[in-house]
């Protein structure tokens, strides 16, 4: 997943796309950052459910969550090899609805390349998308 994303689709658009049973009204959000509440769609009791969760994973084996920063991204090529993601990958997958996301590119020639410019990426037709997620 990316570092920041946007969700401006209406609850009705998301409900039609994902077919979940229950949903909540929520305002459009234009700069969703790690550790903030995010919407997910997950299988629960045999049906798709909409819920709000905090963006960030705490592995099941962590004894004191205050001593570990939340895991916010997982790379697909190594996710099955890392103990932090193994249980969630097997049993707790979800979809993270989005309207688009930001990617940053370092700008050449400015402060030795330390200045970054955000680029907004979204589907051309404006329809919502979903990221694969773990909860």
**Overall pLDDT level:** 87
The CATH superfamily label reads SOS response associated peptidase-like
Q: Which percent range fits the helix content?
A: 10-25%
In quaternary terms, these chains amount to single chain
Segments where pLDDT lies below 50 for 5+ residues?
Answer: none
Percentage of residues in DSSP E strands: 35-45%
Radius of gyration, taken over Cα atoms and rounded to an integer in Å: 17 Å
Number of domains: 1
What's the number of extended β-strand segments?
8
Q: Largest sheet, described in full?
A: 4 strands, antiparallel
CATH class designation: Alpha Beta
What is the distance, rounded to the nearest whole angstrom, between the alpha carbons of the first and last residues?
Answer: 13 Å
Explain how this protein is built.
- The protein has one domain (4-134): hypothetical protein yedk fold.
- The longest helix is centred in the middle third of the chain and has 9 residues, at 83-91.
- The two termini are 13 Å apart.
- It is mainly beta and 135 residues long.
- A hairpin with a 2-residue loop joins strand 3 (37-44) and strand 4.
- Helix content is 13%, strand content 36%.
Give a topology summary.
Blueprint: E1 4-7, H1 11-18, E2 29-32, E3 37-44, E4 47-54, H2 83-91, E5 93-98, E6 100-106, E7 116-121, E8 129-134
